[in-house]
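User: My collaborator sent over this chain with a note saying "see what the structure looks like." That's all I know about it. Can you take a look?
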Amino acid sequence: MNAAIVATDVVSMLFKGDIRALAYRPHITGRLLGISRRGSSSCQSAANRAPNGAEIAAGAFHDPVRLITNNRGGYSVVDGLALLSA
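Assistant: Without extra context I'll predict from the sequence alone. Here is the result:
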């Protein structure tokens, strides 16, 4: 299956019409997409952000599907996680 999970940073760019979102078009076109369930960073304390990132990575790793994110460095510690980024 050609599926991917889209991290909220990329979803935000897409919905806001951010010019950077254009770079993600090849990664999202033609795929079955899911959106990570992580809440907005502005609504979370710093202590709560890391566990949510771990949940996103675990979901992508378990299924296994690619994770489309603008935060490549935040997920680089997960061996075997397939990342797509611009």
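A starting point for your reply to your collaborator: The chain has one domain: 3-84.
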